[in-house]
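@channel sequence for tomorrow's demo:
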Amino acid sequence: MLPRDPLTALTDAFTTFLFGKAETTRLPVRTSTGQAQAVYLPTAAPGLGDSGVIIGREVYSGKGYIYDPFQLYGQQLPAPHWLVLGESGNGKSALEKTYVLRQLRFRDRQVVVLDAQGEDGVGEWNLIAEKLGITPIRLDPMAALEHSIRLNPLDPAITSTGQLALLRTIIEVAMGRGLDERSGFALKVAHAHVRRDILEEGGNRQPILSDIVERLRHPSRESADAMNVDPEDVRAWGLDVALVLDRLVDGDLRGMFDGPTTIGIDLDAPLIVFDLSHIDRNSIAMPILMAIVGVWLEHTWIRPDRKKRIFLVEEAWHIINSPFVAQLFQRLLKFGRRLGLSFVAVVHHLSDVVDGAAAKEAAAILKMASTRTVYAQKFDEARATGHVLGLPRWAVEIIPTLTPGMAVWDVNGNVQVVKHLITEAERPLVFTDRAMTESSAPPAPSGALAPRDDAVTPAGGSPGEYGEYGGYGDYRDYEAETEARAISFEKRGAG
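structure tokens (generated this afternoon):
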């Protein structure tokens, strides 16, 4: 034991002489919790700031809850993407709609909604679109061909690499498996020759899927010579691909993808609604359609103009649960922050995506969603959700007890229980069960839009810009292209 400092020893001796003890003994104080609450004041976790969109009220502190991924990005939020999940009837739809309506009050906001829910023969976003003077883009395979709205996977606005990646995704979703090297080669050369033929004709029309089908059925000698094989071999390699695309051209899925993109789609509108309510949710048309819409929007809607864009997808399990579609959207989300894009995915059950065929891709997408909003779930599912999302124990325990309109919000580790508030002006617009209201008559159908057939040279230059037959449409090529576009956006924004 080290010797004590003389001054310290002298001080201790003097204190003991005066008081008899070196330390005093604290006597216990008996009191009630009612009296002690004035001493131990309650504390609440800090909020997210006061800049953004009002969501509602924090349940424990009573403070207003304000959230905006664009305001929070960088300091409190590493990524602007958002996952909303919970069972039906607990307020997910009301949250989506009020969030969009409140975001649109900012001048620099644009929103696209993939509306997969139907009501009264139209999508549930139809009422909001009408209120804003916007006509939803209604995609319906059963509509008369002359009145149907089409999205062309070979739209000239989409780059050559994007077109080829999209064609592969469509085919792989329909086949339920990936393309092998031979089928990929047949598709690649057919696409290259169609683009070259259109350019040789003067570029006065859009290439369409039937052009690809025709070239797959009748491959050129040039494409066969490139691999030192017979044209019949190339034809055999592309037969399955041709059969799948023929289903989109002249089968049960015709009318939505087999022609020039419809003109009249206002890409400058503050809100664009794609009404998918007439699409069978369990058919392959839904993930195919979401893939086409996503890629088409990436090349036409997202621009380097300083606007902040929100892409909201209902029934998002169609995207996340398909490994081929998930790859396309995973790439878009990866560069979303550079593109000024916030992706909002709405699902009912986390098990819909984490236990599916695209579990790896789903995990990557969930990881990029820095904001998670969880509505009421059953106890077992809440426990599984908490495990996957890394929620604290107290939040997991409270999820099964949440009442409609209340949710657990996890914003990059800042976890709060929030009560969503709806104004009287918003209330008539956000109800999803209009059949229970007095005015439930379906609106009159909107007028048809005309097909678009611009005399435009396809974006991305000639078919040989990346090698006439080099590569088979690898997703890595498309990811590199998207990254280059994102970097160019950043440079323009900084200029």
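heads up for whoever presents: Residues 1 and 9 are 14 Å apart (CA to CA).
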